[in-house]
Design goal:
Layout (H helix, E strand, L loop, with lengths): L2 E7 L2 E6 L7 H20 L5 H27 L3 E6 L3 E7 L6 E6 L4 E5 L8 E6 L2 E4 L6 H14 L2
Antiparallel strand pairs: 1-2, 2-3, 3-4, 4-5, 6-7, 7-8
Helix pairs in contact: 1-2
């Protein structure tokens, strides 16, 4: 699961959530290198001809496009949500890849998780309600992970 609970003190726990990355950075480098090598095989027959210089920019553009797309995906998935629960306080911080952090504070007595099975941006949308606000948590998780997260949040807020 791309989240875990950590006990920071006897009365305080933290939940860290992050998006799942199925392709590690070394794997992305291997994909880009593999695409370059396989795209270069047809160019070997053109060594010494003028056609090589006509096709080489297209191969390099395709490889650069794949590399830029993977890099952009990694930068956009650099999201971290931290929910801190103490005996009387709940605090959620979302560290966005671009832009300022978003925070939510609430008295734990009034805070509770809520699941929207339909009608949210994703199925089984999980929110925290309290202090007159409703904030999302773990929207980047898969459907099964959001269901498990809701069960764990329900237990944690009791």
């Amino acid at each position: 699961m791309p989240y875990d609970w950590k006990r920071t003190s006897k009365a305080e726990r933290e939940l860290h959530l992050w998006p799942h990355n199925s392709l590690p950075p070394r794997g992305a480098a291997a994909v880009v290198l593999t695409v370059f090598l396989f795209a270069s095989i047809p160019l070997l027959a053109l060594l010494g001809s003028v056609l090589l210089w006509g096709l080489l920019p297209f191969v390099l553009t395709a490889v650069a496009g794949i590399w830029l797309a993977l890099d952009l995906n990694y930068r956009q998935r650099r999201v971290l949500e931290v929910l801190t629960l103490s005996d009387d306080h709940a605090h959620l911080v979302r560290h966005n890849p671009r832009g300022p952090d978003q925070e939510w504070d609430c008295n734990r007595y009034w805070a509770h998780p809520k699941m929207h099975e339909q009608g949210g941006p994703v199925p089984h949308y999980v929110t925290l309600t309290g202090a007159g606000r409703e904030v999302e948590i773990g929207a980047f998780l898969s459907e099964d992970e959001r269901i498990a997260l809701y069960d764990e949040l329900t237990q944690a807020f009791r």
